[in-house]
Amino acid sequence: MGGICKTTIAKATFIDIKHMYDASCFVEIAQNNGDSYSISCNILKQFKFEEKPKDLNEAQEILKSFFIKNKIILVLDDVKDQSQIEVIPMDVISTSNEEYSMMIYKINIEELDEVSSIELFNSYSWRHQEKLDNEFVEVGTKIVKACNGLALSLKVMGAFLRGQKRLRYWEQALQRLKRRRDLDGDENDSDYKIWNILRISFDNLKDIEKKIFLDICCFFCNDVYPQGMKKKRALQIWAKNKEEEELEEDMDCILNTLIQKSLVKIDNKGILSIHDQLRDMGRMIVEVEAKYKSTRIWNMNKQPIHKSSNQVSNIDLI
Q1: How far apart (Å, rounded) are the C-alpha atoms in residues 161 and 140?
Q2: Which of 52, 194, 229, 316: CA 20 to 30 A from 308?
Q3: Are residues 136 and 198 in the same domain?
């Protein structure tokens, strides 16, 4: 299941123990197009190999030789397919939503318990700055329960309510959350459940904030830009869009709003980052809702074409 902090736990573990090894490497599969050769090249690059191998076989031989001579810790994040691991000539730590027969040892990450959920939610909604009144505690506890222990949902809902000192605002958020849960549909569709919770924060955005968020979901994420989209470059693109009058500074303010709401992140290299559950929710909105339907393309196979003229229509170009 997505949104339960597998990546966060893996990164924290990696940072905590990497000093015990001669070399360490953390690879986000989404940034490598998911193919075995790209993953292998990324690993070699992190291990300071300057010359790029000519093919996958050569990459495997170089890795095997390096692993034999050194004590290594290697983490692969968000593995989609078993073949992505099979090419690595050593044992690895991996995170995945799937199960693989070749796993030697498996740890199932469960949803947070109620105490941990409340603590995480409060750290985003109030940041422990003051003691909450009993009325807020009661409503907040109900919101936490509705999030089902999903860390991402707790973070986004907490950020959505951050600084709001009107009890009525919290109660309205709870009612919207309950209505969204009533739309869950398939009880086994965990993605749809978390999207319904995350959607509350999206619905509360201004129109221009929604457009920027959807642009990031569809255009400026790792599976479209494997090397990542720089914040500065994205701001320049948005500011030059002839359909928008906002200047680059205004777009920066809009982006900061999305960051404050825990919908988007900027890493230490200035690259835009978004959780894959938020990305998929945004793409689902573009695919199914009339207002946004077919306005953005991230997969050319989904391109809306007029069969009679082979022309593309209804696309937001940025």
Answers
A1: 10
A2: 316
A3: yes
Distances (CA, A) of 286 to 248, 258, 282: 25, 18, 6
Distance CA 237, CA 248 (A): 9
Domain co-membership, 213 together with 288:
yes
Candidate ranges 52-66, 127-141, 235-249; pick with highest mean pLDDT: 52-66
Element holding 284 (H helix, E strand): helix 276-288
Q: What is the pLDDT of residues 268-302, one digit of tens each?
A: 889 998 988 899 899 989 988 888 877 787 765 55
The C-alpha atoms of residue 201 and residue 214 are separated, in whole angstroms, by 13
- 258-267, pLDDT tens digit by residue? 999 989 999 8
CB 195 within 8 A of CB 207: no
Q: Are residue 124 and residue 222 in the same domain, yes or no?
A: no
Cα–Cα distance list, 309 to 100, 295, 296, 306, 312 (Å): 46, 19, 20, 6, 9
Q: Is residue 39 part of a domain?
A: yes
Identify whether residues 214 and 299 lie together within a single domain.
yes
Q: Can you give the residue range of the structural domain that contains 174?
A: 114-202
Q: Is residue 318 part of a domain?
A: no
- In a domain, residue 107? The reply is no
Q: Are strands 93-94 and 265-266 parallel, antiparallel or unpaired?
A: unpaired
Q: Which of 27, 62, 94 is the last residue of a domain?
A: 94
Structural tokens at position 207:
């129109």
Q: Which residue has the tokens 């951050």?
A: 162
Structure tokens at 206: 């201004």
Secondary structure class of 307 (helix, strand, coil): coil
**Considering 156, 179, 202, which residue would you say is the last residue of a domain?**
202
Q: How many domains does the chain have?
A: 3
Mean pLDDT across the stretch 143-166? 87
The pLDDT of residue 207 is 92
Is 274 in the same domain as 215?
A: yes
- Whether 234 maps to a domain, the answer reads yes
What sign does the dihedral 8-271-220-252 (CA atoms) show?
positive
CB atoms within 10 A of CB 63: 22
